[in-house]
Amino acid sequence: MLARPTNFDHHWLPFTNNRMFRETPQMFAKAEGVRYLTPEGDTVLDGSSGLFCTPAGHGRREIADAVHAQLMTLDYTPHFQRAAPVSFELAERLAGLLPEGLDRVFFASSGSEAVDSAMKICLTYHRAKGEGQRTRFVSRNWGYHGVNLGGTSLAGMVNNRREFSGVTCDVVHMRQTWSEEQRYTQGQPETGAELADDLEEICRTYGADTIAGVFVEPIAGSIGTVVPPKGYLERLRAIADRYGLLLIFDEVITGFGRTGAAFASQAFGVTPDIVTMAKALTNGAIPMSAVATTAAIQDTVFAAAGDQDRPELFHGYTYSAHPVACAAALATLDIYRDEKLFERAAALSPAFLDMIFGLRNLPQVSDLRGYGMLAGIQLAPADKPGAKGSLAQRALFDAGLHVKATGDALIVAPAFVSGEDDLEQMGDILRRVLGRADLS
Ligand SMILES: Cc1ncc(COP(=O)(O)O)c(C=O)c1O
Fold it and tell me: Which residue did the predictor score with more confidence, 437 or 321?
């Protein structure tokens, strides 16, 4: 048995019903491979790679060793007017993985910070071009872009913005892309590409010359995996080009193999101007995120500074490019390369999606969506929205499976090192729990 805390009063948990948690805490005390261990010693299969963070599985010694070695060599570097070699090595490695042309990398520590950094890069770029009036952003209903004030403004998940709307910035939302006719579609839906025209409508209504950029998750992850309709992202790209907007793909979940390609932009064949990434960048081991953009954008920003002795971008964090996080990321990228984990994700995807779509006729299931190694299970709602998701998540934990729940959707995202037997066990638990007529 591993120690369980005796006092739950002091840690205020994020995105948690703390009152319920304190009554019946569901905790992890240890992790290895694709399994967690509770303080009581029970095994819980990890069906969501933690929070979409650990495609290489838990407890990777290579990452731990790299972190230890970096701590003993150079534990911290300021990155304001200073730097360490390790961050340049990481930026170059990322440039080799990203879509062609996205080869300038800015580092931060979380997905939320990456999103806010990307917003500021957009604003600085337009100002550098003499278009400082472009201060408005476009995003999408049901979108999730982290919880800092920039990301909260972009958010299209209502609960995440309702209480903070007094301090959000100017964002106009496009419609989300799911529709009734897409129910139970595996992969990209055939219908809905024309919803991208919302962007054109917004450009006409608000004036394209007031808009800096458009943020979308290529697959809307946190809402429960909404896969883009065929042609939708292409159409967004064309409209953004027509009106001089920057297109930003928030790949905090989809980056690093989740779609079977390094980035979803490559899987869908649409290249944005900016990509944000986090989570699997270090296999979740050390907080780190990044924003990648093009030389053209960086050159424009640098040129505006001319020969003045000042930063080109008035933005950065104490922990930007933390050397220990860089070391963790480099060790993670080595694992992805050496174990061909993105290829493995692509190879495992059909078995994974077959397992998910085999849940179709269960009493608790009302829709299934999926692409690559990411799937959404929509539950038939109870009286109150969100209640079923919470019940299901807790029941699944008790049955030995961890999955992320948002509202009445479960989001399944196994590690790429999962075996087919792990996927079978996942399927068994999902069938057992979601097959119940009553989850309470
Ligand atoms: C698309 C997207 N953007 C941003 C974030 C925020 O990342 P973080 O929680 O690391 O701040 C998330 C987190 O799930 C995300 O899915």
Answer: 321
For ligand 1, the distance from its centroid to the CA atom of residue 113, given in whole angstroms, is 9
Distance from C-alpha of 199 to C-alpha of 235, rounded to nearest angstrom: 9
Ligand 1 atom at minimal distance to the Cα of residue 222:
16
CATH 3.40.640.10, the chain: domain bounds: 63-338
Rg (CA), the chain: 22
What type of residue is 103?
D
> 63-338 has which fold?
Aspartate Aminotransferase; domain 2 (3.40.640)
Which residues contact ligand 1 via a Cβ below 6 A?
Answer: 110-112, 115, 144-146, 217, 221-222, 250, 252-253, 278
pLDDT tens-digit series, residues 346-360? 999 999 999 999 999
| Alpha-carbon span 192 to 200, nearest angstrom | 15
Rounded to whole angstroms, how far apart are CA atoms 253 and 346?
Answer: 16
pLDDT digits (tens, 9 = 90+) for 212-229: 999 999 999 999 999 999
Which residue has a Cα nearest atom 7 of ligand 1? 111
Angle (CA) 125 130 134, round 5°:
65
pTM over 0.70: yes
Q: Which of 48, 119, 251, 252 to mutate to test the pocket of ligand 1 (most atoms within 8 A of CB)?
A: 252
Domain 18-56+340-434 is in which class? alpha beta
What DSSP state is assigned to residue 375?
E
pLDDT at 439: 86
